[in-house]
Write a structure and sequence with these properties.
Blueprint: H1 2-26, H2 31-53, H3 64-67, H4 70-80, H5 99-127, H6 143-156, H7 160-186
Helix pairs in contact: 1-7, 2-4, 2-5, 5-6, 5-7
Length: 192
């Protein structure tokens, strides 16, 4: 099954990106830290979702709009009450010019919802508030069902020609995300 192959193929880069991101998350202590984090996350998600939507249109993938979560990041920044700096959009994104490439990129974005509730709980403890966390709780109790339905769609779409695009673009998306995290990790002036 394609979803299982994806998990195996991307396991190492996924773990590397997650490790760096969790390290960053553990240091969030103030609203300002939180907004800075959400802002650079938005700079990755908005352009990535825009690219994905060029291929996964509603006639092909009816719940794509529901799976778009960049607006949750904007809402969380507004709710925090701290004006975010102008977002810096990630420009080194994978090319998303086929259905398979869009699925590979969306695999990475959708997979992040599985850890969202754990991150929300961690940030609630660190910030002493459960506000400005809609992005991490975007599917709420439906998270596992949304993940399952995405994997079913992915597996049912796994023709030979689609498969290679999915696998390659998922790897590229994880690498791009890891590089984006590292850029902000190593350049604190980009935080706010």
């Amino acid at each position: 099954m394609l979803s299982q192959d994806l998990k195996l193929t991307t396991e190492n880069i996924h773990r590397d990106a997650e490790k760096i991101m969790v390290s960053w998350l553990k240091r969030i202590r103030t609203k300002e830290d939180h907004v800075a984090f959400l802002n650079w996350l938005y700079g990755f998600y908005r352009p990535m979702e825009d690219r994905i939507k060029t291929q996964l249109t509603p006639d092909i993938f009816p719940d794509m709009d529901r799976r778009s979560r960049a607006d949750y990041l904007l809402r969380d920044m507004e709710e925090a009450g701290i004006p975010p700096p102008a977002p810096e959009n990630c420009s080194d994104l994978p090319s998303i010019n086929t259905f398979g490439k869009a699925l590979g990129a969306l695999y990475v974005l959708e997979g992040s919802t599985l850890g969202g509730r754990f991150i929300a709980a961690m940030l609630t403890r660190q910030l002493g508030s459960d506000k400005s966390l809609s992005y991490f709780n975007s599917y709420g109790m439906e998270t596992k069902g949304m993940w399952r339905s995405f994997k079913d769609f992915l597996d049912s779409s796994a023709t030979t020609e689609v498969r290679e695009d999915v696998l390659q673009t998922a790897k590229e998306t994880f690498i791009t995300f890891k590089n984006w995290i590292e850029k902000h990790e190593l350049q604190p002036e980009l935080r706010l």
